[in-house]
Design a protein that fits this description.
seven-stranded parallel β-sheet; six-stranded parallel β-sheet; 13 strands
Length: 381
């Protein structure tokens, strides 16, 4: 079976790579269509092809014009033109076109309508609420796009129920649990570049967006620092919001030396180094369906602190310490026990690692996904 995997902006490169490799290992002819790779990407395609079909011109300009408003406008214009007028031959030849992400709903609608009836269309709904309502026009009209697909893939019952509540028929939704992931492993140089902690270290990593509750985390940490609790907080990743007021609040409170920032698009190896050096990893999300960041951290065996949103609500107590989403005082109390007790941190970390070892594999997901492809193809025959 020929499979065209589509993630135009390469939003989830590690996920795409893991799934494509296992689909290819199971005998499928797979091509991942995305943007040109950057130095921070760690994908080395094994058994499948990689085609930099999207954003070639805007990516070429990225180094000169930066990633501000001009870059976003160029990207939107380029994607819109590709959706409306770009050649479809490489996608049409596939038995299944599987979209992981839809980066610009108005343009995506045009592209999907051009593809309808020419090939089977599948979409993984990573979040039932597009971009967690943080993206404006980017996600406007996303719900309507779901009706253009032959099948929808979700990673758990939280997303399935949310889609059903939005009027999506249950028989169109297929649940495939999200396996744990492993980022590129940190080498000696990456580990040396991250300082060793002298006090318990709390890590938040990944893209920094409003829905992820970094402001709630800062509020919780400030309350603990003010009460004399000794620890440091590391924020590592690319901000997609104004984080200056948060950092200013920490400095103005007199705790600037407790906050370590490593902002930008970081390599997987550098993120892996941050996880290796941390004592606790926190996910204070206001809302989430499933979290690739959480699943990529489990194997490190660090104490995990989460909100009770989305997939986190279903975690066993041994896998993570939870606090109500958006509740800074409750988050502070959850953190306090871990900060003050190395033994509790160690037990929590062991529980997180053990939970990860019980979850499914990418091979399992690939085989389930192939079954979805076959059922869709049969229904269209």
């Amino acid at each position: 079976m020929k499979v065209a995997m589509v993630d135009p902006s390469l939003f989830t490169g590690r996920y795409d790579d893991s799934l494509c490799a296992e689909l290819a290992a199971a005998g499928q002819e797979v091509t991942l269509f995305a943007r040109p790779m950057r130095a921070t990407d760690a994908i080395v395609p094994e058994g499948y092809a990689y085609a930099p079909r999207f954003f070639r011109h805007s990516e070429a300009l990225r180094g000169r014009i930066g990633e501000g408003r001009a870059f976003r406008l160029v990207k939107a214009a380029e994607y819109g033109a590709a959706a409306a007028f770009g050649k479809l031959d490489a996608l049409e030849r596939a038995d299944v076109v599987h979209f992981q992400w839809l980066p610009l709903a108005p343009a995506d609608r045009i592209l999907l309508r051009r593809l309808q009836g020419r090939t089977a269309l599948v979409h993984t709904v990573h979040n039932a609420q597009a971009y967690h309502s943080d993206a404006g026009v980017q996600g406007r009209g996303y719900r309507g796009l779901l009706d253009l697909f032959d099948a929808l893939v979700v990673h758990g019952d939280t997303t399935r129920r949310a889609l059903e509540a939005q009027g999506v028929r249950r028989e169109r939704i297929h649940v495939t649990p999200h396996p744990p992931m492993r980022l590129a492993k940190a080498g000696v140089e990456e580990l040396a570049a991250i300082s060793d902690p002298s006090v318990p270290r709390l890590l938040f990593f990944g893209t920094i967006r409003p829905y992820k509750g970094v402001d709630v985390l800062i509020e919780a940490c400030l309350s603990l620092w003010r009460s004399g609790v000794g620890f440091e907080l590391v924020l590592a990743g690319k901000p997609f919001m104004d984080v200056a007021p948060l950092a200013d609040a920490v400095r103005e409170a007199g705790f600037g030396d407790r906050l370590v920032t490593d902002f930008g698009f970081l390599t997987e190896a550098r993120l892996d180094a941050h996880m290796a050096k941390a004592d606790m990893i926190v996910f204070p999300y206001r809302h989430i369906d499933s979290s690739g960041a959480f699943l990529s951290a489990l194997h490190h065996g660090k104490a995990m602190v989460t909100s009770d949103a989305g997939m986190f609500a279903a975690l066993p107590a041994s896998a993570a310490v939870r606090a109500p989403a958006g509740n800074a005082p409750a988050l502070a109390q959850a953190l306090l026990r871990l900060i003050e007790s190395p033994a509790i941190r160690q037990a929590a970390g062991a529980g997180a690692r053990a939970y990860g070892e019980t979850m499914g594999s990418w091979k399992d997901m690939a085989l389930t996904t192939i079954g979805i492809y076959r059922s869709v193809a049969a229904s269209k025959a």
